[in-house]
Amino acid sequence: MGSQLSSWKDKVVDLLYWRDIKKTGVVFGASLFLLLSLTVFSIVSVVAYIALALLSVTISFRIYKGVIQAVQKSDEGHPFRAYLNKDVAVSEELVQKYSHVALGHLNNTVKELRRLFLVDDLVDSLKFAVLMWVFTYVGALFNGLTLLILALISLFSIPVIYEKHQPQIDHYVELVNKNVKDAVAKVQAKIPGLKRKPE
Question: Can you tell me where the transmembrane regions are (predicted)?
Answer without folding.
Answer: 26-55, 141-162
